[in-house]
Amino acid sequence: MPADTGLRRQAGRGLWLLGPALVAGVAYLDPGNVAANMTAGARFGYLLVWVVVLANVMAWLIQYLSAKLGLVTGMSLPEILGARLSHPWARRAYWLQAELVAMATDVAEVIGGAVALNLLFGVPLVWGGVLTGVVSMGLLVVQTRHGARSFETLIVALMVLITAGFTAGVIVAPPSVGGVARGLVPRFEGTDSVLLAASILGATVMPHAIYSHGALARDRFPHTARGLDGGPSTLTLVRVARWDVSVAMLVAGTVNLAMLVLAAANLTGVAGTDSLHGAHAALREGLGPMVAALFAVGLLASGLASTSVGAYAGAEIMSGLLRLRLPIVMRRLITLAPALVVLAAGIDPTTALVLSQVVLSFGIPFALVPLIILTARRGVMGKYINRLATTWLGGISAGLLVALNVALLWLTFAPDMTST
Question: pTM here?
Answer without folding.
Answer: 0.87
